[in-house]
Design a protein that fits this description.
Alpha/beta knot; seven-stranded parallel sheet; globular
């Protein structure tokens, strides 16, 4: 049995900022990806409950290792992952501390949040229109990790 006051606290140099991500499976998967790459997670109002059954299952226990930080406590240097119109992820400066902003499954990120951030697109080969929010977050974290290894 766990107690919520025993969950990880604090922040990390890299945070996934989830803006109104409503699918609990996506929230749990993003928490799991954050765990794999040593990131934290910030949830906006309107996000799925990270302690709901589907989110817990998708996180595969990562919820007990990843700090959930307040939306305003995430690093202020932000990279907004957008479907179209941004610079490529590969050519973007990703020096921590930074927050990768990921938007709601259908609505994306609000314009004012994108305007205060660096707009980045993950270029997709072929005819794919955009990525699932959980896949986009994992790719962004992987790219940051790849750069730090070289």
């Amino acid at each position: 049995m766990y107690r919520r006051d025993e969950l990880p606290v604090g922040t990390r140099d890299v945070v996934l900022g989830l803006w109104r991500v409503a699918d609990p499976g996506n929230v749990g998967t993003l928490i799991r990806s954050a765990d794999a790459f040593g990131a934290g997670v910030a949830l906006s109002d309107g996000c799925a409950d990270p302690f709901g059954p589907r989110a817990l299952r998708a996180s595969a226990g990562a919820i007990f290792r990843v700090p959930l930080v307040g939306w305003d406590a995430a690093p202020s240097s932000c990279v907004a992952l957008v479907a179209h119109g941004g610079t490529s992820l590969e050519s973007t400066d990703l020096d921590p501390p930074l927050t990768f902003l990921l938007g709601a499954e259908r609505g994306g990120l609000p314009d004012d949040l994108v305007a205060r951030s660096h707009r980045v697109t993950i270029a997709l080969p072929g005819s794919a229109e955009s990525l699932n929010v959980a896949a986009a977050g994992a790719i962004a974290l992987f790219e940051l990790s790849r750069r730090s290894r070289t």
